[in-house]
């Protein structure tokens, strides 16, 4: 079975500051990992994905994440926060390319001017 | 290319009634997933359909059921609605070895 832990239900940053959203996973087999973003009353949009290729993954809107097997982590970062980044972010894991996606509980990113 | 579409966008039902939610996947996607997003509970996996069959089911009572049609569209049925069923229901479609693409969701309100 797989699981995802997102540390911090809320993260607050100032505009222009570094964004770091934490995700740790557990999986009995090499995982596929994803970060999704959700704006209010909308569905989820894929930010980036790790599928066993490069460990540093670049996504949309300037986000990137690094897969660290030794730490079972897949933290999401962005060098400089923008007001439009305020949203809820979900980390997800699947044990293979074709199985159920398990999500973390989400982290709400708040960006102040 | 059309994305995942869900209908209706909003649904208001009375406790004890039945609700039917619909999802059309992206063309060529054979898998459909249903998730419940209730306030404060994150995304809870409900059901996974592929090629017309139920492949996996989350920890939900039997009154949550669904099906997948030959054209890969899917329906989620919730019987005997309870107040705590009020949530955003999200549908996602996927092909093997790709990410899941989500619809905009159906907001179900049980009064």
Main attributes of the structure:
heterodimer, A: 113 residues, mainly beta, 6-stranded mixed β-sheet, 4-stranded antiparallel β-sheet, 0% helix, 51% strand, B: 111 residues, 7-stranded mixed β-sheet, 11 strands, globular
Order of helices and strands of chain B: EEEEEEEEEEE
Helix content of chain A: under 10%
Reported for the largest beta sheet of chain B, the result is: 7 strands, mixed
Structural class of chain B: mainly beta
Structural class, from helix and strand content of chain A?
mainly beta
Low-confidence stretches of chain A: none
By DSSP (H or I, 4+ residues per run), the number of helices of chain A equals 0
Proportion of strand residues of chain B: over 45%
Rg of chain B is: 13 Å
| Oligomeric state of shown chains | heterodimer
Portion in beta strands of chain A? over 45%
Count of DSSP H/I helices of chain B: 0
**Number of beta-strand segments of chain B:** 11
Shape of chain A: globular
């Amino acid at each position: 079975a797989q699981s995802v832990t997102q540390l911090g239900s809320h993260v607050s940053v100032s505009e222009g500051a570094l964004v770091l959203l934490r995700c740790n996973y557990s999986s009995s087999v090499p995982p596929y990992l994803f970060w999704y973003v959700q704006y209010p009353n909308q569905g989820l949009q894929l930010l980036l994905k790790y599928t066993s290729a490069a460990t540093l993954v670049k996504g949309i809107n300037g986000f990137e994440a690094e897969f660290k097997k030794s730490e079972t982590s897949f933290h999401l970062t962005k060098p400089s926060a923008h007001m439009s980044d305020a949203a809820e972010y979900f980390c997800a894991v699947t044990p293979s390319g074709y199985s159920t996606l398990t999500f973390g509980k989400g982290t709400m990113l708040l960006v102040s001017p | 290319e059309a994305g995942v579409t869900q209908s209706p966008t909003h649904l208001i039902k009375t406790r004890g009634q039945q609700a039917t939610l619909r999802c059309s996947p992206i063309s060529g996607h054979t898998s459909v997933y249903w998730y419940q997003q209730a306030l404060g509970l994150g995304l809870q996996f409900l059901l996974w359909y592929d090629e017309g069959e139920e492949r996996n089911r989350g920890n939900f009572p039997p009154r949550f059921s669904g099906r997948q049609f030959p054209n890969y569209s899917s329906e989620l049925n919730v019987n005997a609605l309870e107040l705590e069923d009020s949530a955003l229901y999200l549908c996602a479609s996927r092909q093997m070895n790709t990410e899941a693409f989500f619809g905009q969701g159906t907001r179900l309100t049980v009064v």
